[in-house]
Amino acid sequence: MERVEQHAAFGGSQEVWAHRSQVLDCDMRFAIYLPPQARRERVPVLYWLSGLTCTEQNFITKAGAQRYAAEHGIAIVVPDTSPRGEGVVNDAAYDLGQGAGFYVNATQAPWARHYRMYDYVVEELPRLIEAQFPVGDARAISGHSMGGHGALVIALRNPGRYRSVSAFSPIVAPSRVPWGEKAFAAYLGDDREVWKACDAVELIAAASERLSLFVDQGDADEFLGTQLKPELLRAACEAAGYPLDLRLQPGYDHSYYFIASFIGEHVAHHARALRG
Q1: 212 to each of 198, 230, 237, 245, 269, how far by Cα in Å?
Q2: Phi-psi region at 157: left, alpha or beta (left = phi > 0; alpha = psi -120 to 50)
Q3: Is 199 helix (H, G, I), strand (E, B) or coil?
Q4: What φ, ψ does residue 189 adopt, rounded to 5°?
Q5: Catalytic residue positions?
Q6: Where are the alpha helices (DSSP H) in the chain?
Q7: CA dihedral for 155, 216, 198, 143, sign (positive or negative)
Q8: pLDDT the model gives residue 174
């Protein structure tokens, strides 16, 4: 690994590292914030998954999460949103290819060689983080938009692996909205039954763990009725008796202004689970 950035922040250290991913077969970057408590003990870790077009930079420069992570003594790890680099297949559109990995394991050519973000986030990256940094195996996961989809699906599919999960403006039912339909058809093929394993709304009914979902959604979000559809998540949770705290925040849109406004509450939510 190579450290490519380091900045002092709230008594801790905001860092960016580059490494070779065996799962993705390319060079990758991730960000990690280490709170001041990490100098004397192994700290729990929150994984943040970003949305379409993002890299590891968007969250660490716009969300303002470092202050809260320092207060609660938790690390925050932010991977990139897709494989990158020359030789990694891409698409001219913003919602497919580099910057749009959708946190799934692609099975279709030409995507299958590199686009295995599910395995990267669930297995390879935590193994690396826990081996190389002063963090323990107490994990939480959160994300925004495409990353909110990723966080919900990963938590639902891996009972016992995460102590808490939250999301901002998640794509809760990608099988039923244009962003998800486009990506899933490309990465997973045309069989919609296969898509269900990557769709939070479809996973709720059979979930074996009742890890409460904490979701914030702005009611002025330009994608609310076309891509996000939080009412589908509410209906699925009500039908299954699954615990959900879905907050519709008046006046907020899809931007990082929204995330920055409520990230402190999300970090506190995760800290209670991680350090409780």
Answers
A1: 18, 15, 10, 7, 11
A2: alpha
A3: coil
A4: 95, -175
A5: 145, 221, 254
A6: 57-62, 66-72, 117-119, 125-132, 146-157, 178-188, 192-195, 200-204, 230-240, 256-275
A7: negative
A8: 98
Strand pairing partners for 249? 218
- Give residue-wise pLDDT tens across range 18-64: 999 999 999 999 999 999 999 999 999 999 999 999 999 999 999 99
Q: How many residues comprise the chain? A: 276
Question: How many Å apart are CA 115 and CA 187, to the nearest integer?
Answer: 8
pLDDT cut 90: percent of the chain above it: 99
Distance from C-alpha of 149 to C-alpha of 172, rounded to nearest angstrom: 6
Which residue type is seen at 71? Answer: E
Query: Encoding tokens for residue 172?
Result: 């809760």
Low-confidence ranges of the chain (pLDDT < 70): none
Half-sphere exposure of 216 (CA within 13 A, CB side): 25
**197, 157 contact by CB (below 8 A):** yes
Residue with tokens 């909110």: 148
**CA separation for the pair 80, 221 (Å, rounded):** 24
User: 2-34: buried (b, 16+ CB within 10 Å) or exposed (e) per residue?
Assistant: eeeeeeebbebbbbbbeeebebbebebbbbbbb
DSSP 44-63: EEEEEE--TT--SHHHHHHS
Instruction: Give the Cα separation of 48 and 71 in Å (integer).
Output: 18
Q: For residue 176, how many C-alpha atoms fall within 13 Å in the half-sphere facing its CB?
A: 16
